[in-house]
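#onboarding

Welcome to the new folks! Below is a worked example of what a typical request in this channel looks like: someone posts a single protein sequence, and someone else replies with the predicted structure as tokens. Don't worry about understanding the tokens yet, we'll cover that in week two.

Example request:
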Amino acid sequence: MTSVHRSTEPLELIVEAKVADLLDRPDGDDVRASSLEPSGVCVHDGACYLIFDDSSAIARIEDWSGRSLRNRMLDASVGGHAQDREDIAFDPVSGHFFVLVEAVRHHGQLLSEVLEYAPHGTPLGRAFLDLILETQNKGLEGLSCLVRDGEPFLLGLCEGNHCRGGAEGRRPGGGRIHIFQRGPHHWTHVDVIRLPKDVHFVDYASVAVSGDRIAVVSQSSSALWIGKLAAKGFAVEDGGTIYRFPRDAQDRVVYGNVEGVSWLSDDRLVMVSDKAEKNSPAWAKERSLHVFALPA
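Example response:
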């Protein structure tokens, strides 16, 4: 594997918008009481689908200019509680969405869970991922779908290095993505992708696959890594490239709360940012959708 390249140019911001400025709130205490803190995003059929930390709803965004009939919350019957919903992925084989729940206690063990939805938000089922987690809040943080020989596989990104919590989880160089194959009762663990050791991210927030390209974003490191997957099996074929997010005029991190990433095109990605501390430089960018272009 070749060494990781570090781009000298930051990602280029194309457009961004506050999520709350794009959506009318439907009836229902769950959504009315929420502040719309996005935790994941995926692109399908030209629209962005968002999930939230504080709502069980799924939003569909097509128009970035403001509130529009093209932007709406999907059927409120998606149900369930919003806690620990971390990412959303689209499966092109079934045409369904999968939403990742970070950690659920099941028979005395902590497991991540995947909720399955029809395109209009109707719940279809739920199943556990066959991977025992160490801690409640340091489980799987990102979700994507990869098709191999016509069969979908789920990619679950660990939040901490070596899938650990605490100080060890924040020691860079141990990025891990677990691969799951659908079984009759749960998603079976079949492989693991080890990110290059030179990807020195403190944490990992989201993963997105498009063709043979894989993107991983980090909150704490305020950076994006893009690599190439092998044509068969589950492995990273090269060292890839690290891109940093733009900073403010004082060289402070302003994109330090990025929670989700998805490919828009070969050179553009859409991302969402979660809630930030009000007095931090990232506050102006919180709870927003962003589109970034890769530097030429």
